[in-house]
Amino acid sequence: MAFTSVAPVSKNDSNGGQGLILGRYEVGRLLGHGAFAKVYQACNVKTSQSVAIKVLDKEKILKGGMIAHIKREIAILRRVRHPNIVQLFEVMATKTKIYFVMEYVRGGELFNKVSKGRLKESVARKYFQQLISAVNFCHARGVYHRDLKPENLLLDDNGDLKVSDFGLSAVSDQIRPDGLFHTFCGTPAYVAPEVLGRKGYDAVKVDIWSCGVILFVLMAGYLPFNDQNVMAMYKKIYRGEFRCPRWFSSELVRLLMKLLDTNPETRITIPEIMENRWFRKGFKHIKFYIEDDKFCSVEETDEDIGAYSTDQSSMSESETEVETRPRVGPLPRPASLNAFDIISFSPGFNLSGLFEEGGEGSRFVTEVKVSKIISKLEEIAKVVCFTVRKKDCRLSLEGSREGVKGPLTIAAEIFELTPSLVVVEIKKKGGDRGEFEEFYTRELKPALENLMAEEALSASTAAAATGGSSLPPDSK
Fold first, then answer.
1. Tell me, what DSSP letter sits at residue 27?
2. Where do the annotations place ATP binding (predicted)?
3. Which end of the chain has less Cβ packing within 10 Å, N or C?
């Protein structure tokens, strides 16, 4: 994601008029609005991709003291990139506006589908499986939604669920010294009883309660706790007073009783949900990774372990695990750098790090052959049990250990500077900054320095043996 200063919309975006942002996004119809923002459908004029653009008024944000809130929302959306979560592509700004360019989900809110009547059990199960996968992914990265409800669950063209609206989300950094959250938030009908008690709550258990209410609504077509009087509804929630309709199976009733347990200490956990017999029916364990801002799934088969596609319709697993397909044929030539690429290497011109978690990584120039660089990176990855994925002259090294920010993922790309020189760029693509710095300092950097030293020594030895010089002809 990049945070880019852009030219203003060519027409007045505050009154719903169409316009062009940075010559890239043609703004279309208004999709919705709130106190601080309006959301428009838009089209990327270069790729024809439909997007949703959330337009925020800077003045209103400043007056409302929402700057920290907006920054936190950006950081959260960057942290939780998952096939069942609405994706943030980039953030742009003018003097008066901030633009969130997001995935446009055509199917609308799940609420609209449920409002027409209860869903078939198989359909409700599929949505619940995708919801739990997305929530589990968030929790593993220290993100808690705190406002899960059918209005915040969207459906894409394939009928798959996408969690949206992380405006009330919290991160683990906000937990009080007692290990709990204390902010009263959420939608009344979906709020957990411990939130009503105002004594602090575990946000993981609060999200699970909301998932339970959502499952009930999908299957019944109405709320488990409902009353025209809000205080009367809160009493029902606090006491856990609800009844399952007769068409609920016994397996589903048992699961709901565990999800809507008023005691957060004994409420079912996500690992237990995923082992539940009702939940597991038809649940597919399909891994995914992100490349070029696209989700790619990896499904192991007997014929082709590691074959992958970009079909997002079947992705529901929160883990990331990638196998490397054996390379066939000659190694492709590295991409050449033009003048603009070289200029962008200067920190003064490179804006890509703005609003990112940090500019971790390095670049270096070497005469070492591309094949040797790639072999060395694969060798390092094998020693530390990292998964390697290759595409042309790009490599992705991914750790297996899940941290708060996901597994450590390192990208290495090789560019051609001259026929005899290449630029190697190493970047942290995911995971914890401290873990990356330790791995880079202890493993990557020394190994690559040794490779370059060995190559230089080999070249010098070869030149001495032939009575020549190791320097290129034009440097003599």
1. E
2. 54
3. C
- List 13, 147, 160, 432, catalytic entry: 147
The set of residues, in sequence order, having a beta carbon less than 8 Å from that of 186 and lying 6+ positions away, is: 146, 147, 168, 192, 195, 206, 210
CATH code for the part of the protein at 110-280: 1.10.510.10
Give residue limits of the domains in the chain. Answer: 3-103, 110-280, 335-467
pTM of the predicted protein model: 0.64
Q: Looking at the domain 335-467, which fold is it? A: TATA-Binding Protein (3.30.310)
Residue 276: per-residue pLDDT: 96
Q: Which residues contact 321 (CB under 8 A, 6 or more apart)?
A: 287, 298, 387, 400
Answer whether 69's CB lies under 8 Å from 119's CB.
no
Among candidate residues 368, 473, 359, the one with its CA nearest the CA of residue 416: 368
Model pLDDT for residues 301-336, shown as the tens digit of each residue: 333 333 333 333 333 333 333 333 333 344 555 665
| Range scoring the smallest mean pLDDT among 217-226, 346-355, 376-385, 393-402 | 346-355
Which CATH number describes the domain made up of 3-103? 3.30.200.20
Residue 287 labelled as part of a binding site = no
Active site residue 147: yes
Burial of 275 (0-12, 13-18, 19+ CB in 10 A): exposed
